[in-house]
Amino acid sequence: MGDTACECERSQAANLAQSLHLLNSTEVHDKVSAAFKQALIAWVAAGHKLLIQDSDSCAGNRTPKYEFLPYKFATVNPGASGSPGLAGILENSTLVSARKRDASFIDPEAWKNGPNDLGDSNIVVQNDPRWCGAMWAKNKLHKSGLALAYAHYGRGLIVLCCTRIVRPFAVWMIDVFTSPQT
What we know:
Helix content: 25-40%
Strand content: 25-35%
Largest sheet: 6 strands, mixed
Number of domains: 1
């Protein structure tokens, strides 16, 4: 038998978490057990939040595979190069907003006119209709599509962020992912 007290403590700590962040997780398909993936989806359905952030480490043979998610999607992944690109906000929300008063404010004009690395964005090119788009981008491969998307699952939320996390997203993650409400 294992150390049941330690296992219990880990289980209780996991139950306290409201969100899980998979960052540049191109290896989740191969290195995470099927049991964990199944438990993760049940955890989201119970009212928690899963943030998947992939961009810079995904290119060539290093492409994300998320077959375990309830709603499928496929991305085109250019990899990291600091390339400029385009982006636009599809809806003002707690995820991203063009309204200066919002904590999730991102200035789309500053991104358009100034230096940016939006060309490194992964682009969702196929998706289940239950994914909702919050932001689109055009990357260095001249592919356009969703770059920030979300889907409600059960009482929880799955967020797919295909761009680099910049300062406004850090504020947004604190607000959105520490709140028990979705």
